[in-house]
Design brief:
- It comes from Streptomyces griseoincarnatus.
- This is ATP/GTP-binding protein.
- The chain is built from five helices and eight strands.
- By secondary structure, it is of the alpha/beta class.
- It has a six-stranded mixed β-sheet, sandwiched between helices. Strands 2-3 form a two-stranded antiparallel ribbon.
- The longest helix is centred in the last third of the chain and has 27 residues.
- It is globular, with a radius of gyration of 18 Å.
- The N terminus is likely disordered.
Length: 201
Amino acid sequence: MIFGRSERGKPPVEPVTLKILVAGGFGVGKTTLVGAVSEIRPLRTEELLTEAGRPVDDTSGVEAKSTTTVAMDFGRITLREDLVLYLFGTPGQERFWFMWDELSEGALGAVVLADTRRLEDCFAAVDYFERRSIPFVVGVNCFEGSARYPEDAVRGALDLDDDVPLVLCDARDRESVKEVLVGVVQHAMTQAARRRSAVTT
């Protein structure tokens, strides 16, 4: 690139940017998911867990966790020269939920990560996106040693609408995460088409 123009003489392409949120409970794997798929070194705002936070940071089931996100995680994926996907991982603890409104501004959709050992931890995220009509996919993060449950059982426990996609994933695996993100984009496109159809009929 030379003086704002490509070497071939073509003007630089201004990419379209899409924004996807990654939400869920404390210790569910949001930071890991963003890091697994980001093409850049992810921006992380992690701090060590402290004794002062012990009463509010429930580490049951994730006893080995020593850090927590206090603002957000940020990653980027270039899908094409003219299309870039930004990932924003939201903080999981209730005391940081005030940041969600800012982070969700302009979001195409969201991934709600769920851990079957602590399924109730993602209730708040599901409720948040439902109330704001932001398309979301539930990704059940398959931790080692966690019990596997039928999709219908997980759907019932989360009280999900039938049209909300639910997928099994591994937040550590790049290909698995890519499939989840493709699912978010497809679901968001489907929801947008339904809204347009409802307006025209």
